[in-house]
Predict the 3D structure of the following.
Amino acid sequence: MILSPGILKGQTLEVTTQTPYNFGSFALNGAGTVTLNYDDSRTRTGDIQLMGIDYHAATMILTITAERTINVYFPENQYLTREGGTETIPVTLGPTDKGLSFPASALPLENRIDIGGTLDLAGPLANPAGNYSGQVEIEFTVVYE
């Protein structure tokens, strides 16, 4: 058996989405941003009105079989797409409640990480009303020292 550098036999990282992102409802009168913080608070910039109380950051559960450091990376150029349309909203992920690198417990304890994000809205013509959805990528890397 050949193992890649840095990977030790029998050690795994399991990632489970406990709560997916939900940026909630808002009225878009002009350009701006909607930021969902990792503590489930929500803010806005520009000509946007936040509505409703049904919103929350993403929560992931990381289970690892040995105590290691976990690094978090958010790829750029991620988008949500309007259902029934082609319009997109850029989404920037982060920050997290643990930063971009944190020690993870094992035995096998669950390590919860809450992750915020920001929608960059161009205005009502570019981002008409509707439901926007999609999948985002988050990379977790285990550091073996």
Q: What stands out?
A: Residues 1-9 have pLDDT under 50 and may be disordered.
